[in-house]
Automatic annotation (TrEMBL):
<keyword id="KW-0547">Nucleotide-binding</keyword>
<dbReference type="InterPro" id="IPR017871">
    <property type="entry name" value="ABC_transporter-like_CS"/>
</dbReference>
<dbReference type="Pfam" id="PF00005">
    <property type="entry name" value="ABC_tran"/>
</dbReference>
<dbReference type="InterPro" id="IPR050093">
    <property type="entry name" value="ABC_SmlMolc_Importer"/>
</dbReference>
<comment type="function">
    <text>Part of the ABC transporter complex PotABCD involved in spermidine/putrescine import. Responsible for energy coupling to the transport system.</text>
</comment>
<feature type="domain" description="ABC transporter">
    <location>
        <begin position="5"/>
        <end position="235"/>
    </location>
</feature>
<dbReference type="InterPro" id="IPR003593">
    <property type="entry name" value="AAA+_ATPase"/>
</dbReference>
<dbReference type="GO" id="GO:0005524">
    <property type="term" value="F:ATP binding"/>
</dbReference>
<dbReference type="InterPro" id="IPR005893">
    <property type="entry name" value="PotA-like"/>
</dbReference>
<protein>
    <recommendedName>
        <fullName>Spermidine/putrescine import ATP-binding protein PotA</fullName>
        <ecNumber>7.6.2.11</ecNumber>
    </recommendedName>
</protein>
<comment type="similarity">
    <text>Belongs to the ABC transporter superfamily. Spermidine/putrescine importer (TC 3.A.1.11.1) family.</text>
</comment>
<keyword id="KW-1278">Translocase</keyword>
<dbReference type="InterPro" id="IPR013611">
    <property type="entry name" value="Transp-assoc_OB_typ2"/>
</dbReference>
<keyword id="KW-0472">Membrane</keyword>
<dbReference type="InterPro" id="IPR008995">
    <property type="entry name" value="Mo/tungstate-bd_C_term_dom"/>
</dbReference>
<comment type="subunit">
    <text>The complex is composed of two ATP-binding proteins (OpuCA), two transmembrane proteins (OpuCB and OpuCD) and a solute-binding protein (OpuCC).</text>
</comment>
<dbReference type="InterPro" id="IPR003439">
    <property type="entry name" value="ABC_transporter-like_ATP-bd"/>
</dbReference>
Length: 364
């Protein structure tokens, strides 16, 4: 696949404050790429640098092999959709959508044809002559999307485009925008702090924290193989057990847990060059150690509470050493799980991720 956008060693200072710290990323042609991170992590700043609304302090931004680092926003020819729609209230839907074409001096007949085309794409054929304030939030956002794609930009930027909508509408729009994006094959970068939205819509996600990029990967890989504790805790839920490395051999490593027990986990090619680690387990990776089940790693924990969530039970339990565990098991069990009960649980070597215990590294 041909790459569309390349951000190389990009840093942005606001006075002495580093809002973006040496960002490197490549977005492929036709890809839906999401920048995800907590508030203040630098997502919007990175998007503004790509759009040209802010100047980079150092680094390079390449769009289709052209260095656009010092170009003005309008010279970059990028489509943008903002959280607050930013439609012109005194213009009809058709006039709003026609605006970028008129600015580019496109011929009248072609403008008419293009506007009709995108109105169809966003399912608003009937609304050409309406004004924005006569439309719902979801419809206005579709107009904003139509206006951003009508001039066939090489890149579409979405800045928290759905955060003003209620949850049901947001979920419907996620699917709709994703399908429009796929059908048109338009390269898209979206900024959000909503991990569910990122997981639903993206081909790849870039996780940011404190201005830096923590990991760029597919939704599945971020969930299954987070690179560090921040990503593991930010995407989905995770149990972390403190562990000390004992030995490593042919793709497997033995660790000693806080209670002295030794467990074995797959290393997946990871270099284990320190002593202190965290065994990271998603709630559904922990199983009940029932008779007949072959689990390599076993542990005891005392049940504190059990929550029924339809297809599953969420069991909150605690080890003797005080480590809290959240376990997700199928709700169709042969016996009930009760608070106070000592539960035998376990996992297999391939189901855990090994993370460096950065807090231990800082202490030593
Ligand atoms: P949010 O999800 O809250 O929008 P974000 O991840 O998009 O957060 P940014 O808006 O990129 O974060 O801000 C990153 C950091 O840079 C924040 O600490 C913010 O206070 C700071 N910042 C952003 N814009 C400016 C500015 N114009 N001047 C000074 N500091 C700024």
């Amino acid at each position: 696949m041909e790459s569309n956008l390349k951000v190389e060693n990009v840093t942005k200072y606001y006075k002495k404050f580093k809002a973006v710290d040496n960002a490197n990323l490549t977005v492929e042609q036709g890809e839906f790429f999401t920048i995800l991170g907590p508030s203040g992590s630098g997502k919007t700043t990175l998007l503004k640098l790509i759009a040209g609304f802010e100047e980079i302090s150092s680094g390079t931004i390449m769009l289709r092999n052209e260095n656009i680092s010092s170009k003005k926003p309008y010279e970059r020819n990028i489509g943008m959709v903002f959280q607050n729609y930013a439609l012109f209230p005194h213009m009809t839907v058709a006039e709003n959508i026609a605006y970028p074409l008129k600015r580019r001096k496109v011929k009248k007949q072609e403008v008419k044809q293009k506007v009709e085309e995108v109105l169809k794409i966003v399912h608003l054929e009937q609304y050409a002559n309406h004004y924005p304030n006569q439309m719902s939030g979801g419809q206005q956002q579709r107009v904003a999307l139509a206006r951003a794609i009508v001039f066939s930009p090489p890149l579409l930027l979405l800045d928290e485009p759905l955060s003003a909508l209620d949850k049901n509408l947001r979920q419907r729009m996620q699917i709709e925008i994703k399908s429009i994006q796929e059908n048109l094959g338009i390269t898209t970068i979206s900024v959000t702090h909503d991990q569910e939205e990122a997981l639903t819509m993206s081909d790849r996600i870039c996780v940011m924290n404190n201005g830096g990029i923590e990991q760029i990967d597919t939704p599945e890989n971020l969930y299954k193989y987070p690179k560090n504790r921040f990503v593991a805790e930010f995407i989905g839920e995770i149990n972390l057990l403190k562990a000390v490395l004992i030995k490593e051999e042919s793709g497997y490593a033995n660790f000693q847990l806080s209670n002295g027990q030794v467990v074995i986990n797959q290393t997946r090619g990871q270099t284990l060059d320190t002593k202190s680690y965290l065994i990271a387990l998603r709630p559904e990776n922990i199983q009940l150690a029932e008779a007949g089940k072959d689990l390599k790693n076993k542990l005891q924990a005392k049940v504190e509470s059990v929550i029924y969530v339809g297809e599953a039970l969420i069991v909150l339990a605690r080890t003797k050493e005080g480590e809290e565990l959240k376990i997700k098991v199928p709700s169709l069990l042969s016996h009930a799980i009760l608070p106070g009960e000592e539960l035998a649980i376990g996992w297999n070597p391939q189901d855990a991720t090994i993370l460096k215990d950065e807090s231990a590294a800082a202490e030593s």
